[in-house]
Amino acid sequence: MDPVHQDFFEGGAGRERTVAANERAFQRRWIVPRVLRATGDRDLRTTVAGTPLAAPVLVAPTAFHRLAHPDGETATARGAAAVGTAMVVSMAATQPVEEIASAGGPLWFQLYPQPDLDFTEYVVKRAESAGCRALVVTVDSPVFGRRERDLRNGFTDLPSGYACENMRDAAGRVRSIAMDATAGWDRIAWLRGVTGLPILLKGILHPADARLAVEHGVAGVIVSNHGGRQLDGAIPTLDALPAVVAAVDGQIPVLLDGGVRCGTDVVVALALGARAVLVGRPVVRGLAAGGAVGVREALERLATELDLALALAGARRPVDLTPDQVVTR
Ligand SMILES: Cc1cc2nc3c(=O)[nH]c(=O)nc-3n(C[C@H](O)[C@H](O)[C@H](O)COP(=O)(O)O)c2cc1C
Ligand SMILES: CC(C)CC(=O)C(=O)O
Asked: Where does this protein hold glyoxylate (predicted)?
């Protein structure tokens, strides 16, 4: 891969403290296994916002897949479909959502709220018509994070020949993605009026926001710091999870992304109350290394490791894991 593009995929904001801390937070947790109780067949399946998943690991929305592999987002979707999980299509995808949907697996669509409400509605309807089953609204990006690697590399836009295909307006012109600092909670209420799709908020870290999310009738929240690409110094997601779980009090599912790299990481997040996790960079790396097969292998490996870790932790199903099975040292 072009090292400039690799820096885009791997990098984060500022000094990349949060990028590093997301993974480190998992290193500080230890699993306390239970014994002699997980009898019978294991079952990794779960359902989130009405979408059944073979395992509680989804593909996080990440931008510009054609820069990682010529087959782009379509290959990622094929890899996700092969393992029976959902892919969250980024608003900054380099292929049209209709084409990505041809892979056949369940898709959710990620939206950066745009200041132009008519256009926002147009994009949402397009995702809906393409068969996307949920809308993931990214709420941690009122402005764009400062990505030092990209600034140093002069990487400010897609190279020519590539476009954010889901930013085409009705006239076929590609708009640039705006970060909308004017979007408030009223925008979530507005979105609920324009779509019947379940809405999940991505980028919740504070328990008070989690409670507001419940009050605004969303179908779920994703504890996320955008993989450390927005606010450098933001709390590692695993550290933020317990308070968010407590705040929503079982009313809606809580998902988490950031730093999930292996099956035991998934066990820790599930035990602390996440319904499922999403993975970003591991999927991009799989895509870059081997297209759809690489994505499938990255996700298969996580599911296999999760199955093994569940068995050894004494859980038959993800919901059997309990918070007392994780200690911090
Ligand atoms: C290269 C890259 C591009 C991303 N693009 C988007 C995006 O378009 N929309 C979005 O909501 N999040 C985006 N994210 C954030 C991811 O959805 C997710 O929060 C993060 O990658 C999870 O951390 P992980 O990479 O450690 O798994 C991006 C992340 C990366 C690494
Ligand atoms: C290009 C951006 C719109 C997406 C991205 O890089 C991110 O969200 O981190």
From this structure: 112, 147, 226, 229
